[in-house]
Amino acid sequence: MSLDGANAWQILAHIIWRASRPILFAVAVLSFVYSWNEFPFSQILTTKNAVPVTVGATFFVTSYGVKWGATAAAMVLGILPPMALGCFVYAFIGQSMLRGAVKG
């Protein structure tokens, strides 16, 4: 198979990869965010020694009350990685949404 003298690897690298790159980045970011937010599974399947940040924030709810400052700080720390990743690949997500909608 040849396209103007290009072999299969050149077609893959120069055409297919460039066309699908924004979509793949968007899928990777959304997959990360969805897996980061799996609170019920992580609460059930983890031990007290190693827990995700979102489950660790629930440890500040005690029988004496809720430590709102510590809970808010833990949630802010839990939000930072997905938000930083989303800001970093924001342009790729926008390109992936417009890739099939705009001709040219």
How would you explain this protein's 3D organization?
The protein is mainly alpha-helical. Helices cover 67% and strands 4% of the residues. A two-stranded antiparallel ribbon has the order 1-2. Helix 1 crosses helix 5. The protein starts with 7 loop residues before the first helix and ends in a 6-residue tail after the last helix.
Please write out the topology.
Blueprint: H1 8-36, H2 39-45, H3 53-56, E1 61-62, E2 65-66, H4 68-88, H5 90-98
Antiparallel strand pairs: 1-2
Helix pairs in contact: 1-5
Number of helices: 5
Order of helices and strands: HHHEEHH
Sequence of strands across the biggest β-sheet: 1-2
Which whole number gives the mean pLDDT? 77
What is the number of beta strands?
2
As a percent range, the share of helical residues equals 55-70%
User: Taking Cα atoms only, what radius of gyration do you get, to the nearest Å?
Assistant: 21 Å
Q: Segments where pLDDT lies below 50 for 5+ residues?
A: none
Shape: elongated
Which range does the strand content fall in?
under 5%
Q: Could you say which structural class the secondary elements and strand pairing correspond to?
A: mainly alpha
Largest sheet: 2 strands, antiparallel
What's the number of structural domains?
1
Features:
104 residues, mainly alpha, two-stranded antiparallel sheet, 5 helices, elongated
Kindly summarize this structure in a few lines.
The chain has 104 residues and is mostly helical. Helices cover 67% and strands 4% of the residues.
